[in-house]
Every structure is written in C-alpha cells, then in structure tokens.
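pipeline stage [seq->struct] | target=5-deoxyglucuronate isomerase | organism=Chelatococcus asaccharovorans | residues=300
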Amino acid sequence: MYAKDDPRSALATAAPAPTAKAVTAYARAEYAKFYETAPQEIRDGARTWYARGQNFLVAYTDVDGEVTWERADQPDEYVVLLPEDGLTVELSDPGTSVITDKASVIVMPPGKSSVTARGKGRLVRLFTTQSCDLAALCSNAGAYAQPHPNLPPFQPWPEPPAGWAIRCYPLDVPPVPGRFGTIYRCTTFMVNAFEIKPPRDAKNLSPHFHDDFEQCSLALDGSYIHHIRFPWITDSTQWLPDDHEICAAPSVAIIPPPSLHTSQGIDPAGNRLVDIFSPPRVDFSQKPGWVINEDEYPMG
C-alpha cells in the first residue's frame, strides 16, 4: 500500500489487524466544502464554518478585524491552528496570556479560556464533540445523529504530567529523514501538518486503511481528489460505490474506517493538507521521534 520510501510503510497498520472486529455496516465519507457554502457564524469581522466527525469538530475562520471566542467551562483540551505567519492571536486562561503571530499549533486547557484574533488571516480551532454547543453548529450535524459504525467510544489520552497549560508549538520545524510530517498531540487530538506540495504523481499514490478511527483531512491550499473504496462485506445491501471526490481549499474530508483511501493533490500551484485525528493515533505515537512534543504528552 505504501511505497518503500514512505515513512508509513513500517507502521503496524500497513497490514490488517488480526483482532479487528468484523465489519457489518459502513458510513459514508463526509465532505465539507467551505468555499461552496455560507459560513455557520458571522460576527466581528470573522466568518466561521463548522463541520464534524464522530469525535471531533473543525471550526475554520477567515478573520478580517478583531474577534474573541470565549470558553467558560470547556470540558477538555482544544487546539488552535495558525496555518501561516501574520495573524496576531492572544490566548488566555485565568493564569496565563500568550501572544503570537507565527504559524503554530496551540493546545488550550480545559476550563475557562479565550482566543482573540486581530488582523487579516485564517485560523482553525479543533474541539471534541464534548463541546455540544459547537457540535450543534456543524453543517453536517445531522449525519451523526446516530453514531457511525466501526468506531469505538472516545477515550482521551493521559493528562500531561506538568498539568494543564497553554502550549504553543511552531509549525516551522525542519524536516527529519524518516519522520512523516510535523506531528503534535495532546489528550484529545493529533495534528499532522504538511508543507505545500506539487501535484501528486498518479502512479505513486498510497492507498491504505484504518481499522477503527476516522481521519480528517483539512485542505488549506490547492485541490485534492479523495479516492475512497469500501471493501465488500457479507451483507451486499451495505456495499457502497467508490468515491473520487474533488475538494478544493478550504475544505475537510472525513474518512471513515475501514475504507481504503488516498488523497491526491492536483493543483499545479501547490497543495497543503493537515491531517487530524481524535483521539491521537497509537501507531504514529509509537514511532520514535515522530511526535515532536511527546515528552509533554507521554502515552502513559
């Protein structure tokens, strides 16, 4: 499934898990093309689109002015992603205030906090669906009225030994041979950000599958074809046709298990994805050096 020079070729998930639960039903992939739809929220110079998976939601915002989001009693950690330099963001909790205008992945603690963005740019926030008020805003909320099959109940990862805090991590990290992307994790999310890439050779794709977790692919630049295939199972009434969904940026594709999938960047001007997993992936976490902040968020 992976080319020999792909760092993922040695992952445990490159082969079927021998103890995987038998599949008896499927859920379709979810696609949210923010450029085709009106935002779910407009205020203070900010336009925000919301879309969700089973365990998580994505809030994508175009900022032009100043806007503040407050969380009075946030149940768990959430993530703020600044895709590029330029937008000034102030992040606060009762004991701390952090200001940055650099491309970053920022982990926000549970409880009371606020995020203020000033200027012109874009910002992405990631929450689990424990934030029920935000989950209700999602454009595809109805698709998860019933839990999707093949996904276990959400379980957060261990709390950071140093305690809850605002943690700001740079996206401008030099690549390391053998490491796949730029990966950070917390108790609720794993975020894997990639650099802008040229169109992908159609003769060198990487179809693969996950037994029991969704993958959210957030397209920040360019356009992608998300190729998704659902294996046949005993119940032929559950068989689904292949997807070859074209999604420009900004958009999200939420890929269900255990579909075979690969995403192909096609824009000659460049293509950039961020892959999002909630909770964090075990297989990526088990690779030494892949998770840049693993010392602050040990697996337990």
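stage status: PASS
auto-comment: The chain has one domain: 7-286. The first strand starts at residue 30 and ends at 33.
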